[in-house]
Write a structure and sequence with these properties.
Its main location: membrane. This protein is mainly α. Helices cover 71% and strands 0% of the residues. It is built from twelve helices and no strands.
């Protein structure tokens, strides 16, 4: 209880309670995340169970009974008769899983290379930073497309759908590690020149222990801010790749795949197939981005 009380009285908790935008963004993000996690229990239909689908229910408008079956759906149905509300819940699970996994992968890789470059310096630092500079000269979505295409070329066709999500995670992660590495490298170079690090080196503490126990905790503040904003960017990157047809397989559609399917029927009058998944993606990315902006301000000592 004392620990919870200290957390409630902390500067970050006070900043959160006094930032209405952050509260609204957190509520929206929490609703979407909980809806995605508990989709099997919340969704009225299983959109991926072909035995439960009825093509006669296809293109049913939101809230209107189908002219053939008489069934009514809250957000309508798509071309295969799948309930849009259920597909959004299940699609958000895939988008969130890919986004979180890609951020974690980029975070681990970027922090590791950033600490190595900042601590060792010399040619190791120059090599890592030159690779980072070259990668920054290209848009991250193009790098993800390139990595995804090359990886699929080495995977047997029979296994492509099984590992498509993992290839997508690696592709997005490899395209986003640079920002973490550059921030960690700069912070590590500052921290390693301080007296407490010099004292630890004098008494013979192993360099790996110094990096992990002393330098790493002091560089995590800005990294967490970048990771929060990077989550929104990773979700958008996954949606973009899936919209282009190179993301998750059609048997496991994410929000981007649902938007791509809806775009095909937009001009024929079935607007709801595109609109509702697009709104879900917009709310998810915007709420996470706003939380990242709030966290950046809350961790900035100059704004306290």
């Amino acid at each position: 209880m004392n620990r919870l009380a200290r957390m409630w009285d902390s500067d970050i908790a006070w900043s959160f309670r006094n930032t209405p935008v952050a509260i609204v963004a957190a509520i929206i993000a929490l609703i979407i995340v909980l809806g995605a996690v508990f989709a099997p229990w919340i969704a009225p239909y299983d959109p991926f169970n072909s035995a439960s689908l009825n093509l006669m229910d296809g293109f049913t408008p939101p809230g209107e009974p189908n002219q053939f079956t008489g069934n009514t759906y809250l957000m309508g149905t798509d071309n295969q008769g799948r309930d849009i509300f259920s597909t959004i819940l299940y699609g958000a699970r895939i988008s969130l899983f890919v986004g979180f996994s890609a951020v974690v992968f980029a975070l681990v890789l970027g922090i590791g290379l950033g600490l190595l470059a900042g601590w060792r310096g010399g040619w190791v630092d120059s090599l890592i930073m030159r690779i980072a500079d070259v990668q920054l000269s290209f848009p991250s979505i193009l790098i993800a497309l390139l990595i995804f295409g090359v990886a699929r070329g080495f995977i047997p066709p029979s296994m492509r759908e099984e590992v498509a999500i993992w290839v997508l995670i690696v592709s997005i992660g490899l395209s986003d590690w640079v920002q973490y590495a550059r921030v960690v490298r700069g912070a590590a170079m500052v921290e390693k020149s301080k007296e407490y690090v010099q004292a630890a080196r004098v008494i013979g503490v192993h360099p790996a222990r110094i990096v992990l126990r002393h330098i790493l905790p002091n560089v995590m503040g800005p990294v967490l801010v970048i990771a929060t904003i990077g989550l929104a960017l990773a979700i958008i990157a996954e949606a973009t790749l899936s919209f282009l047809g190179v993301g998750v397989p059609p048997t496991q559609p994410s929000l981007g795949t649902l938007i791509r399917i809806g775009q095909q029927y937009l001009f024929s009058g079935e607007w709801w197939i595109l609109l509702f998944p697009a709104i879900a993606l917009l709310l998810l990315a915007l709420s996470v981005n706003l939380l990242g902006d709030w966290l950046r301000d809350a961790l900035n000592p100059r704004l306290r």
